Amino acid sequence: MDYPNQQPDPKMSLEQLLEELGELRALTDGLLGTIPGAFIVLDSQWRLYYLNNDAKKLFEGNETSLLGRTLEEAYPRKLGKILSSQKIRELLDGKENTIRRYTSYLHRWFQISAYSSDFGIFIRLEDITSEMILNRLLRLNEFSVNRARDMVFWFKLGGHIIFANMSSCDSLGYDAEELMKMKAADIVLSYSAEKWSEFVNDLKTQGSMTFELSLRAREGHIIPVEITSNYLDYHGDEYIMAFARDITLRKKTDKALTEAKAEAELYVDLMGHDINNMNQVATGFLELALDTMQAEGKIDNTQVDLIAKPHEMLLNSSRLIENVRKVQREKLGHFKLDIVDICQVLKEVKNSYSNVAGRDIKVEFIQDGECMVAANELLKDIFTNLVGNSIKHSSGPLLVSIELKCVVEDGRVYSRVSVEDNGPGITDEMKSKLMNRLSPENTMARG
Fold this sequence. Notes:
With 447 residues, the protein is an alpha+beta fold.
């Protein structure tokens, strides 16, 4: 195109220029003053003849010193090369009269447009930094979602797929265009139209849901997934966003662990049953041998321990097996809470240790509280073990005191039982390790 002469008329002074264009400048200011963005108007000689307020902030100097100067003379360094005369010519010559440029000095993006007329050239700079940042974030979000390892889907409430990321396509064996012609019922194994409708209603009520289901791939194989779905209302448009994680490996691992657990429990049951049976046979023969030899006078009291000790060990072994079985049953939830008379339980514990052979043992029970508590059948084992340990880890005369009291905590009444003895107690060094039975420092722990 033919541009207006780029050189100002050397015969026309600035005062004459302003006087000549004064009325036109007033009209321009009325038209452009309220439009957002920086407006620059060059006259037919490519001289600055109008700058709105936003444009004045970009140029260096006051309005009086700027008007009448050529663009090259008044051009601000802070704009870099985005608004040079060459760029303006490219805009006026190009198929598009709008470009976007970044200035590193201001760290801002501008959308620049330029139009020419018989009068001169109109230039507009619109700050689009926020828009460019938002667009970049949107592109980054789209990029990250599309390349996420988990499958990501967007559905309309009717079940139509409107977006599927690359992982969804790779996992199911469809391309994106194919998936976006399908509905949820086409890929979700258990979802009929009715089931989908129920799911949508539940999701709208809860807002977000996490659950497991199975997806059907193109070749027919089934993919177990964990789904996290969210209901979104975006300016009146309703969507469902779903993240699907393939849990095939987790399912296989869970199955293997379940089978290993069942196998281990079987071995424990078999070993416990068989060893206990052998213990009972050995115990019976030892008791018979001891009774026979004592009756026939073939063994005296000093030799009784030779048979009594292994007999005691076999009894302990049987008790250990029974304890393991109880722990196993407790872990499986076989012991249910019931109303138990704890006073009766503690009296039975006291009586069972009232006559310990070869020891001066006294067990006393002091009751000052309610007897009925919520517990299960393992309650007696707890106090039997406590009193038994007091006896086992002491020597000489021993006093064991079992005391029951009522206490109130947070407005609720409890029965508190304390078991104390006057034995040697536990060393300070051992206290720190007491609850860590399987510590590497104590691999030979016996109980």
